[in-house]
Amino acid sequence: MAKTKISVRNSLMTGVSYMIPFVTAGGILIALSFLIGGYQVAEGTFASYLNQVGGTAFGLMVPVLAGFIAFSIADRPGIAPGMVAGMLANNIGAGFLGGLIGGLLAGFVALWIKNWPVPNSLKKLMPVLVIPLISSAIVGLLMVVVIGLPIKALMDGLTGWLRGLSTGSSVLLGIVLGLMMAFDMGGPVNKVAYSFGLAMISQNILEPHAAIMAAGMTPPLGLALACVLAPNKYTKREVEAGKAAWVMGASFITEGAIPFAAADPFRVIPSIMVGSAVAGALSMLFGCTLIAPHGGIFVIPMIGKFGLYIVALAAGTIITALVVNTLKPNLSQEVIEGAGVGA
Fold first, then answer.
1. What angle do CA 155, 297, 253 make, to 5 degrees?
2. What 3-state class would DSSP assign to 332?
């Protein structure tokens, strides 16, 4: 049992380690595409090609996370079911949390099958055929049926609930939107909030989407600041990811926070939710508006009450950094140097 507990922690760090290059490369390429081509990138331009490449890297982020979580638990036989689980998490809209769960499921299912007593004649087939085949089938069905269907029902319910809130307190709506944007950082809950903001823009109600963008920028910006304020609480790879998170946060790419959340979800996710709730609430309180659906700093001219909007964004960023650094312990020098990655 002790080995299993250690493997869970190490497997998360391993998945994060392999995922970080996809997050940083994809996020910065997307940000560059906005810088060159504006937030509405025209088809067939150099900016659109950058956007396509960056989007492809981002699309691989969750499968790589899940695949290497499973690899850390079950070795090479875990990679195929893990990446299948990650791709399914993308397809069913479960986001990075679905990929994290899928990677752990795939790893432990593959490890279980790996320990089956089999005849010598089958031993060579186990890692290349039997384990990937059976574990992919089991985990795939669990992802689609057990995780996918409830997520769809939850998203439908959340959408209806948000529409009810839009007629109530604006500050309460800002808090709820902020919590949703930070909860899964580009996952299904985040997408419900974002889609709600787009629907409000279509009705010429511009305050909710301003709050949504502030709340979506806050998690990567807050974690980037946290790395600067307390680098001894983060591995070297996380500190490097923090540098890229400045760019992604400024570009409204909330996924820049995922490497930190995947490595330490029980401290990081509540921290960024608090910061995003503050940013969203203040944006709504100040009556900031936004007509553009995306863009971060690239749509500054379209933000109403821009000075107060910066105050809301800065407040959420600082609170995120302070809360997460309060919750996180200092790391040992060995963990900092070794990036916390183990097999």
1. 35
2. coil
Residue ranges for the chain with pLDDT beneath 50: 1-4, 6, 340-343
pLDDT tens per residue, range 53-106: 988 998 898 899 999 999 999 999 999 999 999 999 888 877 778 888 899 999
The pTM score is: 0.80
Alpha helix (H) ranges present in the chain? 2-37, 46-74, 79-91, 95-114, 120-123, 131-141, 149-165, 170-183, 188-202, 207-229, 236-250, 258-263, 265-286, 306-327, 333-338
Count Cα neighbours of 183 within 13 Å in the Cβ-side half-sphere.
16
Last residue of a domain, one of 124, 152, 180: 152
Domain limits for position 330: 166-343
Same domain, 27 and 134: yes
How many distinct structural domains can be found in the chain? 2
Are 291 and 302 in contact by the 8 Å Cβ rule? The answer is: yes
Query: 3-state class of 172 per DSSP?
Result: helix
